[in-house]
């Protein structure tokens, strides 16, 4: 990322002087959680990674296409599993809480003339589809798209072992973006126990996993093969896809080909 503040993409760093008078085509909302990530990553890992990827993509969108998107401060309220919410200072946010937060953000942006929002979700426990359907009913002229940052690009071409939680992928990305926050010497091996019921392991049905029964160190996935180089390669692939998504949704033509009014500005 090169001087993102020059185009006012990162709301955690820029000020009103950077933003006023500019035309912004969309807003990006990183959304994570506050939860343990094995023994070596910070509680806000999901927020930090979603924001870092979003800021990289928004900065590239400006450099390469001269389209402005602003990245809002990340939301730290995630939905948690049993066992996980028993860990010290892990915060569980109910559907109603998340729905209220997202609704207030949409109402604020819509009042200001913006009509496009991308929720970049960094936490596997979050699910926004019903919220977005509700808000589409309330705000039919406001487009909300949801993208899971961890699912945009398959892991298999970048990592040796699949990451479910605080494993090789997330640790490598944190080594790339925030190496000062990674203490790999303290990492557990991320071993996890499957269900004893095969119908749940093969996903015939779903139930939330009890984190106390699944993992000793709260991780699910081995972080010990992580590296900043792997994180950089994976981040580049994810950002490539995000830049295309941002550009597609910022285009004057709508998602069904209709021409959208030029109302997105401050």
UniProtKB/TrEMBL annotation:
<keyword id="KW-0378">Hydrolase</keyword>
<keyword id="KW-0862">Zinc</keyword>
<comment type="similarity">
    <text>Belongs to the creatininase superfamily.</text>
</comment>
<dbReference type="InterPro" id="IPR024087">
    <property type="entry name" value="Creatininase-like_sf"/>
</dbReference>
<keyword id="KW-0479">Metal-binding</keyword>
<dbReference type="Pfam" id="PF02633">
    <property type="entry name" value="Creatininase"/>
</dbReference>
<dbReference type="InterPro" id="IPR003785">
    <property type="entry name" value="Creatininase/forma_Hydrolase"/>
</dbReference>
<protein>
    <submittedName>
        <fullName>Creatininase family protein</fullName>
    </submittedName>
</protein>
